[in-house]
Design goal:
There is one protein chain. The chain has helices at residues 7-16, 19-35, 39-48, 59-72, 114-128, and strands spanning 77-78, 84-86, 108-110, 136-137. It has 141 residues and is mainly alpha-helical. The radius of gyration is 19 Å and the shape is flat.
Length: 141
């Protein structure tokens, strides 16, 4: 992936450059690339990219399933998670490769495993009140 890249520039981008400057650089690069895309390129990605196609399951079916499962978890607080989590939520908490996660350019990642995010939320709540009993449930796609 970094073949042909200047080694010093790669170190600057991956280790030295402050995160806020890196995010700004990446935002500009993607803004430029997006401006160069055509409608046919968008349609091609919509057709071919498994990360962006809609689910084959009817949304009403998924909602019914969610209601059924959450009703069975009455003893838990139901939490609606953001679609994004802090960068590293999977690779730091669950020790999977970040290359298997859809990372964003703003220091976040698309939630791949809601249990990692629930663990982060549980830890946040327990820091506020170490004696609390935290029981969380969610359904996340």
């Amino acid at each position: 992936m970094a073949a042909g890249a200047d080694p010093d520039a790669l170190v600057e981008l991956t280790r030295t450059l402050p995160a806020s400057r890196l995010w700004s650089l990446l935002l500009r690069a993607l803004q430029t690339r997006a401006a160069q895309r055509s409608v046919s390129q968008l349609m091609q990605q919509w057709t071919d990219d498994r990360l962006v196609v809609p689910s084959c399951v009817d949304q009403r079916t998924l909602l019914e399933l969610d209601l059924h499962l959450l009703a069975a978890a009455q003893a838990f607080e139901s939490v609606e998670l953001s679609p994004l989590a802090p960068l590293g939520a999977c690779s730091v908490v669950a020790l999977t490769s970040q290359n298997r996660i859809v990372s964003t350019i703003r220091g976040a990642e698309v939630v791949a495993d809601p249990t990692n995010v629930l663990a982060l939320e549980s830890a946040r709540r327990l820091r506020k009140d170490p004696e609390a009993i935290v029981k969380l449930a969610t359904s996340h796609r």
